[in-house]
Write a structure and sequence with these properties.
Elements (H helix, E strand, L loop, with lengths): L1 H17 L7 E13 L9 E13 L6 E13 L4 E14 L4 E12 L8 E12 L2 E11 L4 E12 L1
Antiparallel strand pairs: 1-2, 1-8, 2-3, 3-4, 4-5, 5-6, 6-7, 7-8
């Protein structure tokens, strides 16, 4: 009798452990526009971004959890008092959803210039906080692009639509 109860218990535990459904990862794509407002306004380094775009792919491997991995790219046309240039930041990061509306995260990667004469790719770091309502989201992002001798810092508002 004990062996039979033990066998039934083992069978029930085995069946219940295999009966759990595996959840499928959720992938989203966002497109939008970004503004770049300079935060390092000393000297001749005032840079304002115009005509900027933003693309992001995100994957939540465990929908029950609140974190999402992101891969983003953008296009910034930066203008200062004497020059203008194009920059393409490519970053990977993590976003954490506080609730259905509020989220925050950080991304790191590289910023590549459209012309090789402007310099090597820069290290890019961007913490952010945002709100989302269904398909529309607004982020406040702090971009820090830096090399050994120079850094460019901007505060950006990103308005995006989730496809």
């Amino acid at each position: 009798m004990k062996k039979m109860l033990l066998s039934i218990a083992v069978l029930m535990i085995t069946v219940s452990s295999f009966a759990q459904t595996k959840t499928k990862a959720i992938t989203n794509y966002r497109v939008g526009i970004a503004t770049a407002i300079p935060t390092d306004v000393y000297g001749n380094s005032t840079r304002i971004g115009i005509g900027s775009t933003f693309l992001e792919a995100s994957c939540n491997p465990h929908p029950a959890k609140k974190y999402t991995y992101t891969l983003s790219a953008g296009y910034f046309r930066l203008v200062n008092q004497t020059d203008s240039y194009n920059q393409i930041p490519v970053m990977a990061g993590v976003r954490y959803a506080v609730n259905n509306i509020l989220y925050f995260g950080a991304a790191a990667g590289a910023a590549i210039y459209s012309k090789s004469t402007l310099g090597d790719p820069q290290f890019a770091f961007s913490p952010y906080v945002g709100v989302q309502n269904k398909h529309i989201s607004v982020d406040a992002r702090y971009f820090n692009f830096s090399t050994k001798k120079d850094a460019m810092k901007t505060l950006s508002l990103v308005f995006s639509y989730t496809l």
